[in-house]
Amino acid sequence: MSDAPRPAVITPLAARLGTLAQDRTLVVAHRGASDQYPENTVPAFAAAIAAGAELVEFDVQVTRDGMLVCLHDETLDRTTDARSALGGRDLRVADLDWAAVRHLDAGAWKGPARRGARVPSLREGLAAIVAGAVPMLERKGGSAEAVVSLLRDAGLVDRVLVQSFDWEWLRAVRRLEPALTLGALGEDPLDAATHAAIDALGVAFVHWDWRTVRSEDVASLHARGYLTCVYTVDPDLALLGAMAAGVRMVTTNHAARLVELRRQHCGSRPTRG
Ligand code: G3P
Ligand code: CA
Predict the structure, then answer these.
(1) Is the CB of 138 under 6 A from ligand 1?
(2) Which of 14, 47, 87, 156 has a CA positioned 20 to 30 A from the CA of residue 193?
């Protein structure tokens, strides 16, 4: 056995996922089952779980009055009826109170059959996911204190993955709550300096843009103890490639498709790195 240092900070939840991933690539539903359902809504989360995703990824923003909500964009225009319901354009969630945001329709943009879906509060989103899958929270807005406090209050510190592109924010979370399972998000090629910066962060998983990850990055991250994850992988051949490369978790808009490809191909997957 190697005595090399393993800088990954592996929590019991990360260890459990690592064990699960020995048998199969874990499916992360990106914003829920977002190919069929409106992203970041309860119906999308429920459909992802029904499809067999082990994890459900979602984004967090914050309203003017401090409510943490499941939403990707800073503005509400793309995924809600805010323009017609409230008037104006480029309506920022940070400029509106929860009382206004909660009544918006967040489903109709995806087709008439999806009308009626709402922007969930973070609490509502977590409740919809946690009984059937592991929530993978991506912070877009909201302070470290607010997110940690909500997770503590909900009793979910040991059941949720928390990730961000903002590594300063991750460091703040780490200081507040060392028991959380943290992930570093990134997109640029993984050069030596980036690998070293990841090691200094104290995270359990590394979640990277699949287009820049080399197979030797995957091997190196595994050797250092990290769970690996790539986003956002949609074409069949890319999904198969990510599985073949031994990446532990794959984030996709097509969760049901990845579950099916995994079922078809898991017998032929090469030995993991
Ligand atoms: O969780 C990773 C992925 O979601 C990051 O990109 O823009 O879809 O939040 P984005
Ligand atoms: Ca995201």
Answers:
(1) yes
(2) 14
Compute the distance from residue 4 Cα to the ligand 2 centre, in Å: 33
The residues with which 139 forms a beta bridge, in sequence order, are: 60
State the number of CA atoms in the 13 A half-sphere of 105 facing the CB: 14
Indicate the domain borders of the chain. Answer: 12-73+119-266
Distance (Å) from CA 33 to ligand 1 centroid: 14
Ligand of minimum distance to the alpha carbon of 161: 1
Query: What integer pLDDT is reported at residue 271 of this predicted model?
Result: 46
Is pLDDT at 7 greater than 60 in this prediction?
Answer: yes
Ligand 2 centre distance from Cα of residue 231 (Å):
9
Q: Is the shortest distance between the CB of 207 and ligand 1 below 6 Å?
A: yes
Give just the sign of the alpha carbon dihedral 217, 219, 223, 229. Answer: positive
Kindly give the number of the ligand 1 atom that is closest to the alpha carbon of 165.
5
Residue among 118, 168, 146 nearest 61 (CA)? 146
Q: What percent of the chain has pLDDT over 90?
A: 95
Long-range Cβ contacts of 86-90 (<8 Å, 24+ apart): none
Strands 55-62 and 68-70: antiparallel
CA atoms of 227 and 225, how far apart (whole Å): 7
How far, in Å, from the CA of 164 to the mean position of ligand 2? 9
Q: Whose CA is nearest to atom 2 of ligand 1?
A: 231
Asked whether 91 and 76 are in contact (CB, 8 A), the reply is yes
